[in-house]
Amino acid sequence: MPETTFNADKIRAIDPKIRRQKLFRWIGKIAAYAVLTAGAVIMVYPLLYVVMASFYTAKEFNESVLGLFPVAKEPTIDNFKMLFMVGLDTATLGYYTNSILRTLYTTSFSCLSALLGGYVFARLQFKRKEALFLCMLATQMIPGILSVLPMYLQLRAMNLYDTWGVYLLLGGGALNVMGTFLVRQTLEELPISIEEAAKVDGANTACIIFRIVLPMVKTIMIYLVITGAIGVWNDWTTPFYYTESQSLQTIPSALTRLTAFAGKEGQLMDYPLILSFSLLVTVPSVVIFFIFQKHIVRGLMSAGIKG
Predict the structure, then answer these.
(1) Is 266 left (phi over 0), alpha (psi -120 to 50) or beta?
(2) Could you give the dihedral angle defined by the CA atoms of residues 34, 36, 41 and 44, in that order, rounded to the nearest 10 degrees?
(3) How distant, in Å, are the alpha carbons of 120, 122, 136, 138 from that of 131?
(4) pLDDT value at residue 109
(5) Which among 14, 33, 125, 300 has most CB atoms closer than 10 A?
């Protein structure tokens, strides 16, 4: 009987602790969801604002007092017609074409250099390899803005300024440092026995890289393709600093120039057009991210980054 009473008292003493733990867990979950919901609203609100403001005419937009959720009294879809019915606007079609071609070209060479560079630093043995690798990583500590003026002068001297040579040289002639680092880290976590067996069977280096190594690092390469394409698509600095012709502008640089030079004296600023034009930069990146976000996470996890 005393033993039964002891067990009952022990259970009654434990029950409040369990209830408190469950209560704290629920409070933690509610707080976490509240923070995530607030963050999602903050992230989505600017895009929603841009979409709603794009239905304004330039005159109504400049004469109206806008609230948190601007609603046009006389909505128009002319801005969206110019963006998506590109056959009506040859300039917009040119921006589309330049952005797509530059993204495809630069992303392809960037991923190729990452694959080859990662293989060299992970598998090949040569003197001062680690020192060279650290020097390569150290270049990432130099702010990119410091290279704008030297690059401008060099392109001028090479007669490449304001030509397609800017995109060809800067997009295909640079080593993807961080991509090389990630591929190297991934390969160092994988066994080399398969590659050695392929060498015994007579496979050359190109065959080993593209038929054996590439499938093994497929996850990180998909990550590099996605993030690289988004980065190039959103890049406005290269065409803005190193080109002048309208025919060479991409969507981000055209938007930047439109924003910089639209406020001329005596001219009505067409904010709705500028805002709707920014959707060309934002929407593709957002869509690509949400579709391929699993690949981005898996790519980083497969890199095997060690502290």
Answers:
(1) left
(2) -170
(3) 14, 14, 9, 10
(4) 92
(5) 300
